[in-house]
Design a protein that fits this description.
It contains four helices and no strands. By secondary structure, it is an all-alpha fold. Helix 3 packs across helix 4.
């Protein structure tokens, strides 16, 4: 094929054609992106926001997309307190005190929910005088404190 197509469109134009240079080299494609949660896939309305948040600070328990986010369940006031404390970067440590009688027993091995609620209470983020009602659903767009 002297002067033919194979010699004009060679992989290595500065080298003469050889059997090795005529092979097609195939590289592995990068793995497909995995949705961080099994219940937020495809066109779910919250998917873009959740994936963007997960890229900023990935959670170790979401690898492989097996964890669930439960976007259609209400966010409880105790969960909301934790989100606020972490978003505002408020200090939280074991032994913080909140004056709410309805929190139940405190587990000293965990900061949730007592110490997160107390951390939210310290700067005045709670508006109830003596109860917190941690299992009440937080309202969207309304005052939750």
């Amino acid at each position: 094929m002297k002067g033919g197509l194979a010699s004009r469109h060679h992989w290595f134009p500065s080298l003469p054609p050889s059997p090795a240079s005529e092979h097609l080299f195939v590289a592995a494609a990068p793995p497909a992106a995995v949705d961080p949660f099994a219940d937020i896939t495809g066109t779910h309305p919250t998917r873009t926001a959740v994936v963007r948040c997960m890229r900023r600070e990935p959670s170790p328990d979401t690898s492989g997309g097996g964890a669930v986010f439960r976007p259609d369940e209400p966010c409880l006031r105790a969960q909301y307190a934790k989100v606020l404390v972490e978003a505002l970067d408020l200090p939280v440590e074991e032994g913080l005190v909140a004056p709410f009688w309805d929190l139940g027993d405190n587990d000293p091995a965990s900061l949730y929910p007592h110490d997160y609620i107390a951390a939210a209470y310290q700067p005045g983020l709670s508006g109830f005088p003596r109860w917190f009602i941690p299992s009440l659903a937080a309202r969207r767009g309304g005052r939750n404190w």
